[in-house]
Amino acid sequence: MKFDDRPPEIDRRALVSSFVLLPVLSTTLLSSPVQGQTTASDQLASWNEGPAKQSIIDFVRATTDQGSSKFVAVEERIATFDQDGTLWVEHPIYTQVTYCLDRVSTLAAQKPELKGIEPFKTVLSGDREAIAKLTMHDLETILAATLTGMPVEEFEADVKNWLDTAKHPRWKRLYTELTYQPMLEVLQYLRINGFKTYIVTGGGQDFVRLYSRRVYGIPPEQVVGTMGGTKFGYDKDGKPFLTKEPKLLLNDDKAGKPEGIHLMIGRRPNAAFGNSDGDREMLEYTGAGDGARLMMVVLHDDAAREYAYGPARGLPDSKFGTFTAALDDEAKKKGWTVISMKNDWKRVFVFE
Predict the structure, then answer these.
(1) Which CATH number characterizes residue 53's domain?
(2) Structural contact between residues 60 and 40, judged by C-beta atoms closer than 8 angstroms
(3) Which end of the chain is more exposed for a tag (fewer CB within 10 A), N or C?
(4) Is 256 a member of any domain?
(5) Which of 117, 136, 163 represents a domain boundary (last residue)?
(6) Rounded distance, CA 336 to CA 167, Å?
(7) Does the pLDDT of residue 16 top 50, yes or no?
(8) Are 81 and 185 contained in the same domain?
(9) Residue 21 — very low, low, confident or very high, per pLDDT cuts 50/70/90?
(10) pLDDT tens for residues 177-217?
(11) Do 185 and 125 reside in the same domain of the chain?
(12) Are the C-beta atoms of residues 327 and 280 closer than 8 Å to each other?
């Protein structure tokens, strides 16, 4: 894609590149000279030089230079990011699904009858091969049972405790440590340049909101995810509370993503980042707007440092984060930038 490649009159990157969470800067600050500024390349230090990194820099230059025909006012600068597989690891299974599988034993203690009912019986068996063969319908059944039926505060406390202790089986690190350093830099770089960053995820909205500020610098009100219902009530002392209900309000996947963006944000994004077929409609919706647009798709092609899966470009197939040849073809046709984890990222995780 082409942007106005005229260099901005002033380098706007201030001495803030070491912070992940920054307030949206005012137009005045963005256009004021600051001594000791870092370059865009410095702020994207975990990216190798190449078309992917340059497309981010060109987009930001085009949309923030007041002399550019592609200039976007600060209040209209919106960027949306899928989470699983785009901001953090989604293999061998989505993190929230892992949480739900771990919670089955607690649920079975409360409801012993589940011990003889599938798919709960398989999960409780501990047979990893059998668990890996569970269908998406099975997993949806488990999610519905383990994510509902409790007060919101009880759910939040349980998730926070799990996130503080549960570790990924490969790296033996907390799941919240397995975020992609290059993408954290993009979030930071966009915010420095006045963009408001949102997570738009197929994962549970309540789940992601519990760590989004701490991990990504994104406040909970800027998380758009799959939404379940809640029911208002009073406890025995008359204190109001909400109970999580087994009622789906929004499936924030595929077409649900642009629908969720309109419902929760009310603006079409200028930039969108994804990694799978579930992000296609969000990328298409973003690209259909006027002015400078940036659509980027992460390709997991680095089995040594992370994982390799597609099945695009001859990579192994996957039911989690599927990146099909059709999505790859659409990206090429429409000028979306495909990010090669292997070739475009100097490092994947901060601990490398």
Answers:
(1) 3.40.50.1000
(2) yes
(3) C
(4) yes
(5) 163
(6) 34
(7) no
(8) yes
(9) very low
(10) 999 999 999 999 999 999 999 999 999 999 999 999 999 99
(11) no
(12) yes
Q: Which residues of 328-348 are buried (b: 16+ CB within 10 A; e: fewer)?
A: bebbeeeebbbbbbbebbeeb
Is 229 strand, coil or helix? strand
Cα(349)–Cα(274) distance, rounded to whole angstroms? 18
Where is the domain boundary, 163, 197, 213?
163
Within this chain, do residues 206 and 58 fall inside the same structural domain, yes or no?
A: yes
Supply the mean pLDDT for the chain.
90
Do 206 and 289 share a domain, yes or no? Answer: yes
Shared-domain flag, residues 72 and 131: no
For 238, list phi and psi in degrees, rounded to 5.
85, 10
User: In this prediction, what percent of the chain has a pLDDT beyond 90?
Assistant: 86
Nearest of 224, 231, 222 to residue 203 by alpha carbon: 224
Query: How many Cα atoms within 13 Å fall on the side-chain side of residue 105?
Result: 6
User: From the CB of residue 291, how many other CB atoms can be counted at a distance below 10 Å?
Assistant: 14
Q: Which helix (H) or strand (E) holds 349?
A: none
278 and 337 part of one domain: yes
pLDDT digits (tens, 9 = 90+) for 301-329: 999 999 999 999 999 999 999 999 999 99
Q: Is residue 169 part of a domain?
A: no
* Model confidence at 2: pLDDT above 70: no
Residue 13 lies in a domain: no
Q: What pLDDT does residue 172 have?
A: 97
Domain residues for the domain of 136 are 95-163
313 within domain boundaries: yes
How far does Cα 44 stand from its chain's mean position? 18
pTM for this predicted structure: 0.88
Q: Are the CB atoms for 29 and 158 separated by under 8 Å?
A: no
Q: Which residue has the tokens 């990011």?
A: 81
Residue with tokens 């040594």, as numbered in its chain:
304
**DSSP letters of 157-219?**
HHHHHHHTT-B-TTT-SBGGG-B-HHHHHHHHHHHHTTPEEEEEEEEEHHHHHTTHHHHHS--
Structural domains counted in the chain: 2
Contact predicate 147/204, CB 8 Å: yes
Tokens of 141: 């059944």
**Per-residue CA distances from 154 to 71, 143, 206, 210, 241 (Å):** 46, 16, 12, 13, 11
